């Protein structure tokens, strides 16, 4: 009885902890490439909560690859606002991302 209860508790903890690992802080849509030709332009546009941000495709995690033909592309992601960009163009750094349906 004690062994069964212990196994049940441990398996519940494992399932609950795995669920937290797979959650993402935001959802968004990669809408297209920024074709502007200037010093602080380029990259890709992503729309999240009615705000448009930009990111560099070369800075995405290695496992995430997409083609322009797939756009618009719905995604879930973890990200942070880049502070080293001084233009105020809402550049972000994406740390974790996956395609959603």
What features would you describe in this structure?
The protein has 101 residues and is α+β, with helices and mostly antiparallel strands. The termini are far apart. It has one domain. 10% of the residues are buried. The model has no long low-confidence stretch (mean pLDDT 82). It is elongated, with a radius of gyration of 19 Å. It has one helix and five strands; from the N terminus they run H-E-E-E-E-E. It has a five-stranded antiparallel beta sheet, with no helix packed on it. It is 20% helix and 35% strand. A hairpin with a 2-residue loop joins strand 2 and strand 3 (51-55). The protein has one helix at residues 2-21, and strands at residues 26-33, 44-48, 51-55, 73-81, 92-99.
Strand content: 25-35%
| Global morphology | elongated
The number of strands is 5
Order of helices and strands: HEEEEE
Task: Say what oligomer this is.
Answer: single chain
Strand count, sense and closure of the main sheet? Answer: 5 strands, antiparallel
Secondary structural class: alpha+beta
Helix content: 10-25%
Strand order in the sheet with the most strands: 3-2-1-4-5
The total of helices stands at 1
What radius of gyration results from the CA coordinates? 19 Å
């Amino acid at each position: 009885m004690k062994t069964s209860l212990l196994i049940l508790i441990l398996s519940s903890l494992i399932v609950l902890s795995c669920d937290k690992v797979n959650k993402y802080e935001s959802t968004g849509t990669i809408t297209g490439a920024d074709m502007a030709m200037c010093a602080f332009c380029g990259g890709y546009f992503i729309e999240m909560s009615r705000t448009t941000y930009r990111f560099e495709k070369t800075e995405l995690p290695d496992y995430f690859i997409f083609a322009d033909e797939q756009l618009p592309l719905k995604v879930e992601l973890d990200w942070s606002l880049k502070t080293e960009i001084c233009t105020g163009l809402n550049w972000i750094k994406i740390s974790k991302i996956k395609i959603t349906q």
